[in-house]
Amino acid sequence: MGVQRLGVSTPSTNTDTLIYTADYPFLASVIGTNLTTSTSLVDVWVVPTGVTQTSGYVYYAYQTDIPPSNTLETHKFALNIGDRVYVRSTQNTSFNLAGLRQVDIQLATGVTSFQTTAPTNPINGQVWVDGDGVAGTNISSLAGYNVQASSATQVPFQIQAASGQTADLQQWDHVNGTPLARVDSTGLVYSQQSPVINANGLYAAGKNKVINGAFDIWQRATSTLHGANIFVTDRWRGDQGAGGGDYTTSRQAVSTGEPFNYCARITRTTTTTTPSYFYTALESLDSSVAKGNYVTLSFYARKGSGFSGLLVAHLYSGTGTDQGTPHGFTNLVDNGANINLTTSFQRFTVTTSSALSTATNQLGVTFNTVNQTGTPTNDYVEITGVQLEIGQSATSFSRAAGTIQGELAACQRYYVRFGGDHVDQVFAHGFGANSTACYLLASLPVSMRIPSTTLEYSTLAVNDFAGSASTFSSIGISQQSKDRPMLIIQGATGITQYRTYFLKANNSLSSYLAFSSEL
Questions:
Q1: What are 26's strand-pairing partners?
Q2: Deepest in the core among 175, 225, 313, 337, taking most CB within 10 A?
Q3: pTM score, two decimals?
Q4: pLDDT digits (tens, 9 = 90+) for 90-120
């Protein structure tokens, strides 16, 4: 690289004037030209980076005479990053600071020529600089070479794709030619040709704050009528403006070209004109990252051919703690948008209009259908790929936990349901307490959010597998625990004290036992 002009100035007389702060090492000199008919006394000095006392200043001209209409050049001097160059004169004087950038390349034998063709006999450790502006094809033996930014705001190394780039941006190969890793034209990183992650975190757990946003998990049922804040699928509730039973949320298979297989279908089943609500509230522990940040909601949606209303998407925030209904948050802030649906899946986004308050402690998402009229036929909306993330733009969809297995575990932190695997499926085991009661220990697959205080069950019995099964009148939680709750059943018959007993399905695949720690 040739000589660069680093700074120019014609300062006021008798004024200390900064003309340059070094952002790279240079070999430099200052040229001063006296523009007057009187002798000018000039000073040129450098304040090294980190120096605060005048005793540390380095002078390259001090009270040096420049006769009228004459020029003076200082000796060459080194500038390090952060050094500051000052000038001063007694007469009207023009100063020019020029420098040659200093580059240290520590290679085996140094740098070869600057030319348009590659060297005929290249030597290991040499670098060929392509003189026609088109980079050479290979640079070898650069072990130990580092690229370091000269400031915190500088990008150390950047690769810019061409317009319409289709070839990979980067590729790393073994010495034998076997591909190790590559970055494709979209920024997706592959390890040994298998996708790992892209700049948008396609496969990253934790980016999406909405659990079960792809509607993979339906522990309770795959079709449920809306009621008063009823869970219709894991982590999602269904409600309506008044009463209940006029809307159904069901699981439907979809094919959108995105990494999910199901959607939630909200169907109006009567002539009601009351609105429906389909929503999820995030735990405060998951919401606190939004403090002082923008948040973006994204989702895929379409309508049935007979949908007669309007879908409204709400991104709610509030300052309460672990509240279960988003539209009831304390100090509610609603960033909502009307959604223009078609009968094909489209992706929609809603971003907060400003950074959220630093007092924000909870987030929630609500999908609201309004203005539906007439006799319902194919009167539904379908939603999937729901994502809530920090930032002002939507990135590629990702499950909250990254995998289906992880998503199930995330759902089971709030609700666990056993049943449907066998007509005699065993749910817990323990011992007889007396002739009518048993203590039974249950083992949960994950630690729940809080110790469960709510049980749901149907068609259960206790049995020692030596006699007939006994039904009972009640079951409750004797000792609370996040992962090993002790149950008590009462109102059984024929129980023998201290004998081992099992809590089981009573000859039915419809039998179930569930624990809830929902918000």
A1: 79, 101
A2: 313
A3: 0.65
A4: 999 999 999 998 865 444 444 544 555 666 5
